[in-house]
């Protein structure tokens, strides 16, 4: 939309749909929105327009509660941004509006959508100014504030419009309830809840079910669910998303299915395809670099130790050997035996790295480090848990890992689940704790895989002396 005329502006003021239709979209071709609006977008805007006009006039809106649930990339943020830009640009009275999410990154998605929209419809910049924590119209004094769950000082305000963005992504229920309670103080306030599908058994699901039931008989409540990928998401991109995500995460984000949030075992077919080795490797092979992972249990769980080999640039990781120790009844694992096994393996393979979780293995690591074993911590932080899970998933799905038939290792891999962390922020590996441990060999393999995968994906191989260090 380039420099609309005075008559266009008058038309937009009384007809928000005309404004939406004439907007230029912030994508490469910069199309006119009305020429490519999907049916589900048009349905949402048609439900929003009477409410926007009522809010601008200070009247009670015909719909005061919206639930907009869409798949990833289906313009949830963009459509809400367009609606807020109309209110900021055309409401004749000052409006107080708030957008809340779990953290700045989440709430910033909406802010970025607004900035992108204003950038390609720059005539609006004469009416709307974008700041770090708010967007405002200095003439009418309408403002949109961005809040996160640690900004509870806003409790007590009386907003005209409240947006709860990315509701399924870790938003605290008390924070969401406070924003809704503040909005409910005003008879003419509006609440918009926007989200991807979330997790079963959560308060977000409870809210969703309540609003969905209300919408069946209450015309003041609007419920929309888009359960298919947006038409502009290409099959190639969907296939890439399917390969890099667990089955439950893909179903949640791209198919609109609420999931239990835990439990994607590595596909059995992927495990079977990886069984290409005749047996373990007992001595180093030319051009291979070696590393190992340890998952140390002492009393209740087994201790797992897995050795892998990689030719840099080959794109493959070879599982060379695996060893586990079970605690005796009522006793502890013999850590001296574990130490001697790892030390002996290092003398054979000249490890580049041995990765371990320092939670239980700190003392063992100190002893091995003193004997020259290149021990390296793999703390189970959120970032590392996510990387371990993703790399394990990638290695099996992309056929980049080679296994031999080891009963305990295979049992542990089959016991592993790749679950989403709370709020959908990455993955973690989980396994039930039972008589045979909690998938110790699978966890040990996952500890060393980020190093091994990075080495396997190097572009070129140059001869290095035994024991060269793999960076991580």
The fold-level CATH name of the largest domain is Rossmann fold
Query: Helicity, in percent?
Result: 25-40%
How much is the radius of gyration in Å?
28 Å
Beta-strand content bin: 15-25%
What does this structure look like?
This protein has 472 residues and is an alpha/beta fold. It has 2 domains: 224 residues, P-loop containing nucleotide triphosphate hydrolases (Rossmann fold, 3-Layer(aba) Sandwich), CATH 3.40.50.300; 189 residues, 2-Layer Sandwich (Nucleotidyltransferase, domain 5). It is built from 15 helices and 16 strands. The chain has an 8-stranded mixed sheet with strand order 3-4-5-2-6-7-1-8, with helices on both faces. Strands 13-12-9-10-11-14 form a 6-stranded mixed sheet, with helices on both faces. A two-stranded antiparallel ribbon has the order 15-16. A hairpin with a 6-residue loop joins strand 10 and strand 11. It is elongated. The two termini are 49 Å apart. The C terminus is likely disordered.
What's the layout of helices and strands?
Elements: H1 6-14, H2 16-22, H3 39-57, E1 65-69, H4 76-90, E2 96-101, H5 104-120, E3 129-130, E4 134-137, E5 142-148, E6 161-164, H6 173-183, E7 190-195, H7 203-217, E8 221-225, H8 235-244, H9 247-254, H10 268-274, E9 289-295, E10 303-310, E11 317-325, H11 335-349, E12 353-356, H12 358-370, E13 375-377, H13 382-397, E14 401-402, H14 407-415, E15 417-420, E16 427-430, H15 440-456
Parallel strand pairs: 1-7, 1-8, 2-5, 2-6, 6-7, 9-12, 11-14, 12-13
Antiparallel strand pairs: 3-4, 4-5, 9-10, 10-11, 15-16
Helix pairs in contact: 1-2, 3-4, 4-5, 13-15, 14-15
């Amino acid at each position: 939309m380039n420099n609309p005329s005075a008559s266009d502006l008058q038309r937009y003021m009384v007809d928000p749909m005309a404004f939406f239709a004439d907007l230029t979209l912030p994508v490469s071709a910069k199309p006119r929105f009305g020429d490519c609006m999907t049916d589900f977008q048009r349905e949402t805007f048609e439900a929003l327009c009477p409410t926007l006009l009522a809010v601008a006039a200070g009247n009670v809106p015909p719909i005061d509660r919206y639930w907009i649930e869409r798949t990833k990339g289906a313009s949830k943020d963009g459509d809400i941004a367009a609606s807020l830009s109309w209110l900021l640009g055309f409401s004749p009275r000052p409006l107080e509006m708030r957008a809340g999410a779990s953290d700045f990154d989440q709430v910033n998605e909406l802010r970025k959508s607004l900035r992108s929209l204003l950038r390609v419809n720059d005539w609006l910049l004469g009416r709307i100014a974008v700041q770090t924590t708010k967007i405002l119209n200095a003439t009418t004094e309408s403002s949109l504030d961005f809040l996160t769950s640690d900004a509870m000082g806003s409790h007590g305000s009386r907003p005209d419009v409240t947006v709860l963005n990315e509701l399924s992504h870790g938003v605290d229920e008390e924070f969401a309830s406070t924003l809704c309670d503040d909005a409910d103080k005003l008879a003419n306030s509006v609440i918009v809840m926007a989200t991807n599908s979330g997790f079963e058994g959560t308060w977000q699901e409870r809210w969703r079910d309540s609003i969905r039931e209300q919408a069946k008989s209450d015309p003041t409540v609007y419920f929309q669910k888009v359960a298919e990928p947006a038409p502009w998401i290409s099959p190639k991109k969907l296939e890439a998303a399917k390969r890099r995500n667990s089955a439950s995460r893909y179903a949640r984000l791209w198919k609109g299915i609420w999931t239990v949030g835990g439990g994607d075992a590595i596909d059995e077919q992927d495990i079977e395809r990886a069984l290409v080795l005749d047996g373990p490797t007992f001595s180093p092979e030319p051009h291979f670099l070696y590393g190992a992972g340890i998952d140390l249990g002492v009393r209740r769980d087994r201790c797992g130790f897995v050795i892998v080999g990689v030719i840099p640039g080959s794109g493959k990781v070879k599982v060379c050997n695996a060893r586990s120790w079970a605690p005796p009844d009522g006793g502890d694992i013999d850590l001296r035996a574990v130490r001697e096994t790892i030390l002996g393996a290092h003398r054979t393979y000249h490890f580049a790295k041995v990765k371990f979780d320092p939670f239980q293995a700190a003392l063992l690591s100190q002893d091995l480090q003193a004997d020259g074993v290149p021990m390296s911590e793999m703390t189970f932080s959120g970032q590392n848990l996510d990387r371990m899970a993703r790399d394990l998933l990638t290695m099996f799905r992309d056929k980049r890992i080679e296994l031999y038939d080891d009963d305990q290792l295979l049992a542990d891999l089959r016991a592993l689940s790749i679950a989403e962390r709370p709020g959908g922020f990455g993955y973690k590996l989980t396994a039930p704790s039972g008589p045979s441990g909690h998938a110790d060999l699978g966890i040990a393999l996952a500890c060393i895989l980020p190093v091994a995968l990075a080495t396997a994906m190097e572009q070129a191989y140059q001869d290095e002396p035994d024991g060269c260090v793999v960076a991580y």
